[in-house]
Specification:
The protein is of the alpha/beta class. The chain is 32% helix and 27% strand. It has 8 helices and 9 strands. It has helices spanning 40-47, 65-68, 70-73, 91-101, 108-117, 134-142, 144-147, 164-179, and strands spanning 2-11, 14-24, 29-34, 55-60, 63-64, 76-79, 152-156, 183-187, 199-204. Helix 4 (91-101) crosses helix 5. The radius of gyration is 17 Å and the shape is globular. It starts with a strand and ends with a strand. The model has no long low-confidence stretch (mean pLDDT 94).
Length: 206
């Protein structure tokens, strides 16, 4: 279970949001929506522990994440609105490096299978990602979801630059994650095509 309690965030002299309270149960996707500048990405970064709130706290399984520290980080997969891929590395190398940094270890075979699952054909797996389109780079980043065994997924605009086929693949992966008892917090401008009973919405008004 994930909880935000009395959460407030400032950017410079401007308050983005205040007194946000939300509880996300296993099997649930929290869709964070709002206008540009309302603090959606800041909220996600606070949940990921990359940013400290002005007030309030995030609790994971009843414990403050500031006390859990690395133990909490080991429970989540975070994919920001930037792809976070290195242009000089291939898709396979990018995923292998990221897996190592997050404490996961995967074979090149499982990494190739993840890339295929997100719709990338083998002919592009070993090319430098600088030659890939923005949509292909986004797929490389999102292939991490096919490798992730972490219960909490934090995704910032995951459908950006994806065509309808790739959007469908990512949506089905989210469905599978929730059905296995996982949680997801997703910043999005798009409707997530999942049953209404598994979606919770948090609107930030800025």
């Amino acid at each position: 279970m994930l909880q935000a309690v009395s959460l407030s965030c400032m950017r410079g002299e401007r308050r983005l949001f205040s007194d946000v309270n939300v509880t996300v149960q296993p099997g649930t996707l929290l869709a964070v929506v709002g206008e540009n500048g309302s603090g959606k990405t800041s909220f996600l970064r606070i949940v990921s522990s990359l940013l400290s709130p002005e007030e309030g706290a995030i609790f994971w399984q009843g414990q403050d994440i500031r006390q859990l520290k690395e133990e909490y980080s080991a429970q989540l997969t975070y994919i920001g609105h930037l792809n976070g891929v290195k242009d000089d590395l291939s898709a396979i190398e990018n995923l292998m490096v990221t897996a190592g940094l997050t404490g996961d270890h995967h074979s090149s075979v499982s990494v190739q299978e993840a890339l295929e699952s997100v719709g990338l054909k083998r002919r592009v797996h070993r090319l430098p990602t600088r030659v890939l389109s923005q949509g292909q780079k986004r797929r490389v980043a999102l292939a991490r979801l096919w490798l992730s065994t972490h219960p909490l997924w934090l995704l910032d605009e995951p459908f950006t630059s994806l065509d309808s086929a790739a959007t469908g693949l990512v949506t089905e992966r989210l469905r599978s994650h929730l059905q296995s008892g996982g949680l997801a917090v997703v910043v999005t401008h798009q409707e997530v095509a999942l049953p209404s009973e598994v979606i919770q919405r948090l609107r930030l008004n800025g």
